[in-house]
Amino acid sequence: MELRSLGTSDVRITPIIMGTWQAGKSMWAGIDDTETTEAIQTAFQAGITTFDTAEEYGRGHSERILGEALANVRDQVVYATKVSPNHLQYDQVIEAFHRSLKNLKTDYIDLYQIHWPSGSWGSKYVPIEETMRAMNDLKEKGKIRAIGVSNFSCIQMEEAAKYARIDSLQPPYSLFWRHVEKDAMPYCVNNNISILAYSPMAQGILTGKFGPDHTFPKGDHRSKNKLFKPENSHRVHQALARLRPIAQRNGVSLGQLALAWVMAQPNTCAIAGARNSAQVLQNAKGAELHLSAADLSKMDTIGHIVTDYLDDNPVMWKF
Predict the structure, then answer these.
(1) What are phi and psi of 169, to 5 degrees?
(2) DSSP helix, strand, coil percent of the chain (3-state; round to 5)
(3) CA distance linking residue 289 with residue 97, whole number of Å
(4) pTM tops 0.90, yes or no
């Protein structure tokens, strides 16, 4: 699989990144550790060498599963993890970082990211200068290779960039969720910042596997996803119906089509989660599809069937 540069750093990443939120189990249902481990190892074997996690995912459980699964090939993979918004004071960042090192069974982290801006989800406000001082110190000591942010607006990125080199932004981004295009994407393109798109298949909606009356099991946070709400359901399924002929013409699934569209956007890689090896292999094939300009244009138009009716709040869920 081709490798891409992560911002201006010397880190090289795959266009499809395996996301491991599911591996943490919290906020998901029906996740099995053995299946997760096999999926991670299958991803590596399929050429996906970049893996994204966070201390918040199952209070370190995702990091521990990932570190165990890839311990024998650590020098061949890229780890991206995140510090939580309630750990953004200087000492807290350092402590969280060392917990992540232990969980991942490593002595360095390739990409260390701020998961949410300070003050998010009821967290205490910490000046970005203080957080970035900790990130810079870790980088200067060779403990991290690159600094990233997640769920930041353009204004928040500009402020963070006053204190450290930012090499990546991780936003929610898919054909059906495109807030980043209006806000932070132009800034990222102009400043050579990689966009690591999470939920590139809109948490499964773009696979076409969920009907309008689908009910998620208890504990699955996707029941709170705005795109699954009745007020958006009709437009979602209207758009999916128009996407199917494009997928069929290209000989791919709807999910693979959605991934290919994201990876074709400026400076953008796709973080694709998977709960088993079969899903991983399906995702990996998405990197083989290179869409024509005509198909990209058609898909852009189809996506607006959904996105033109969403509000300006970039958070995907209504908890």
Answers:
(1) -125, 135
(2) 50, 15, 35
(3) 37
(4) yes
Residue 125 has a CB neighbour count (10 Å cut-off) of 11
pLDDT digits (tens, 9 = 90+) for 213-250: 667 777 777 778 888 888 888 899 999 999 999 999 99
67: Cα separation from own chain's centroid: 18
90 included as an active-site residue: no
Is the separation of the CB atoms in 23 and 37 below 8 Å?
A: no
Residue indicated by tokens 């939120």: 21
Q: Which residues contact residue 249 at a Cβ distance below 8 angstroms, ignoring those fewer than 6 apart?
A: none
- Strands, E assignment, the chain: 4-5, 12-13, 16-19, 50-52, 78-83, 109-114, 144-150, 168-170, 194-198, 268-273
User: Could you give the maximum distance between any two Cα atoms of the chain, in Å?
Assistant: 54
Domain boundaries, the chain: 4-205+253-291
Of 57, 79, 112, 187, the active-site residue reads 57
pLDDT < 70: residue spans in the chain: 211, 213-214, 319
Q: Identify the CATH number of the domain defined by range 4-205+253-291.
A: 3.20.20.100
d(CA 193, CA 89): 25
The whole-number pLDDT of residue 214 equals 66
